[in-house]
Amino acid sequence: PHLAALQPEIMRRRELEEILSVIPILEEIPFCQYLGPERTVLLQTWGERFDEDIIKGMLRIIATKKGSRDALRSRAASVPITLIDREKLFASRTFRDVLAAFEGSALREVLAEPLRRAEKEGKNLFRANMAVDSFFLTRILSAGKKLSGSEGRGVRTLFGTRADLINLYLIYRGRRFFAMSSEEALSITLPVRYRLSFQTLSTFAFAPDIPSLVDLLSRSVYGEAFHIHQEEEIEVYEMRLEHNIYRFLRKTAAKIFSSGTSGVHVVLAYLTLKELEVKDLFTIIEGVRYHYDQKKALEFLISPGSSSLLKSERGDASWPS
What we know:
Oligomer: single chain
Largest sheet: none
Low-confidence stretches: 312-317
Strand content: under 5%
Number of helices: 15
Order of helices and strands: HHHHHHHHHHHHHHH
Distance between the termini: 26 Å
Number of strands: 0
């Protein structure tokens, strides 16, 4: 139903991707009608993660002086769930304006130091973006703390696994691409511990070099995500790593969804699977746009079922630029 009125022959690729990206959020809203207050708050907190994209989009516009505020505003209008005053954010011209837009919100405290550093370090938004991710994921886990039984275990498993994977990825990227010290890499991890203790994360962060770090990661409980040939080109390696992480998360969500139990944890697992399906659609769209080799594109799909969407009858299909 979300795509029924679209005209693909005149639609730009980015317009389609923006519509697809909000579908999981829109599908979350009806579930709130059937759940009690505590579970509804948890689902709404999950939906508020859409603000991550809006905040990051505005930070990117300010940092690069490129991009359209109106386009971002139009996209935001399709999702009514929000934690922030979006109009104040859209009016921001500097990082200081962004902080003023969050006055009175915990987001201001979370972003103050990363944005100060971004101002000094040539608009590098890595730390600010990670702070935003940490804020929203921590809120979800906090909202789910009161749940007991299979619901509580399911929420902790789903989002605890996500937090663990993010922490490993942050340490890896911080050390490899941003020349962070071991202490810095450890400091940007999320304040959430599931299967990885602080001591374990410290072992990764203080690995003597990148090959040693990758070796440690590949032998961890999430090791299958890091079993990649390091001799591949860095761009390909990064794509494989990112998709392996998503595959691990998909496996976790699929197990919860098919567990036979009922509760909000199953809804959240379903919505997570939807999110990952959308990411596969992005990969397929990109493959059509840039005429990627079909077999190569299949290697980067997250869900096994998504391969049926990538047909060989590609022909001369292309997207308006």
